[in-house]
Specification:
This protein is an alpha+beta fold. It has one domain. Helix content is 15%, strand content 32%. The chain has 1 helix and 5 strands, in the order E-E-E-E-E-H. The protein has one helix at residues 50-58; strands at residues 2-4, 7-9, 25-27, 30-35, 38-41. Strands 1-4-5 form a 3-stranded antiparallel sheet, with no helix packed on it. The protein has a two-stranded antiparallel ribbon with strand order 2-3.
Length: 60
């Protein structure tokens, strides 16, 4: 199993970034099972868009 972790991190002192984004980071990860016959994205159905995540969190 491999983890694919694209992300963005905005340093707290990044003067060229809007203040509201300074000091935050976002990663969207996928876990991928690699076999001799191919691969399977084990997290393909996990929400990745902000609206989907907010909807899921509001169900609590």
């Amino acid at each position: 199993v491999l983890t694919v972790e694209p992300g963005i991190y905005v340093p707290p002192d990044a003067k060229d970034a809007p203040a509201k984004y300074r000091g935050i980071g976002v990663r969207i990860e996928d876990d991928v099972l690699v076999t001799e016959s191919g691969n399977v994205n084990l997290t393909a159905k996990v929400p990745k868009h902000a609206e989907e995540i907010e909807e899921l969190m509001n169900k609590k």
